Here is the input.
Amino acid sequence: MSRAREAAYAALRASAPRPLVAGDVVEAFGKRFSAQNGSWARLGSPADIPAWLQARFAPPEGGTLAVATSGDDLLAALPWARAPRLCCVPADARAQATLAVTTAFAGVAETGALALHPRAGAPMALNFLPDRLVVVVRAADIVATLDDFWILLRVRFGSALPRGLCLAAGPSTSADVAMTFATGVHGPVELHALVV
Here is the structure.
């Protein structure tokens, strides 16, 4: 890139208004995410995830619930035995599960969005096909603004950016057909974020 072009881009970046995200970015993320009809919880440890899922989603009449999980190390290391009413299945068996659990590599407080991408053991379809999706994100990976997100993306992936990228900021909603509001048309009916 030429020096003149670099200088012009630098001047544009310097003059662009920056959104203000005051205070705790995790709380700001949660507030924005909730405003878009998502639900969120801040857990003390990743080890709390199976018990939280069982308390929230296991059938009240007993029995087990099939949960499609992405192949992420964080999820594989969880104490699933503490939640005997959940039956984990791999992400590619998602047709057998009404609930899916995956991880986001980042969250954005400004927009209340979770950054999802396809990878081994976590096809992009896992983020769109189940009726209920739970996304786990580390508190340290929640950034204040979209500008901060793009910086994090480049630091995390370098020049090998993910082939697909989705910023999910709440359950899927649409009013495309006859101007009738519907949820779950292009993705999950419920979207839950767990911050650990």
